Amino acid sequence: MGRVKIQIKRINDRQQRNIAFAKRKNGLLKKAYELFVLCNVPVALILFSPSGKLFVFYAKERPEEIICKFLARAVRTRCVQKPSAVTRVLTMGFEIEDEIEEVNARLAEVEKQLERFLEIPDQWESLAELKRREEDFQKTLDIVQSRKRDLKPGNFVSGIKKFLRI
């Protein structure tokens, strides 16, 4: 006797939904592992349970590296079934590239300012120059602190969730 074909729809009973998630998650993890072993390809699987718990599986490369490779691909090679989700991811990728360019420009400016700070302080000639250097140092410190806040754990994920409206 064969298996009974089930109708694919949302399971209303919370307990049954959790049971189905656990079983299907294990099956999906097994398939992802088999794909990695048999084909030697990078695999990343990110799941959230019905209760919101995060499950991450990856093989060969970290999920971040795989996502970066995906975002680096040409637009025409990223065909996925859901155009709206793809559009949001692609837009996010382009926004990230633009932000990287801006950050690189700011980094070059900060490095130029840093070169002035590496000079010997005894060579600074006037109080006005010292004040200017102090202001430059404060601006640089503000930039570093701002970037540090942006890079704190959770900010990147919450930014992606907000962008994808999850």
UniProtKB/TrEMBL annotation:
GO terms for molecular function: DNA binding; protein dimerization activity. Residues 93-147 form a coiled coil. Residues 1-61 form the MADS-box domain. This is MADS-box domain-containing protein. It comes from Arabidopsis thaliana (Mouse-ear cress). The lineage of its organism: Eukaryota, Viridiplantae, Streptophyta, Embryophyta, Tracheophyta. Gene3D superfamilies: Transcription factor, MADS-box (3.40.1810.10). GO terms for cellular component: nucleus. The keyword Cytoplasm does not apply. Pfam families: SRF-TF (PF00319). It comes from the Eukaryota. SMART domains: MADS (SM00432). InterPro entries: MADS-box/MEF2_TF (IPR050142), TF_MADSbox (IPR002100), TF_MADSbox_sf (IPR036879). The chain crosses the membrane at residues 33-59. It is found in: Nucleus. Its main location: nucleus. Keywords: Coiled coil, DNA-binding, Membrane, Nucleus, Transcription, Transcription regulation, Transmembrane, Transmembrane helix.
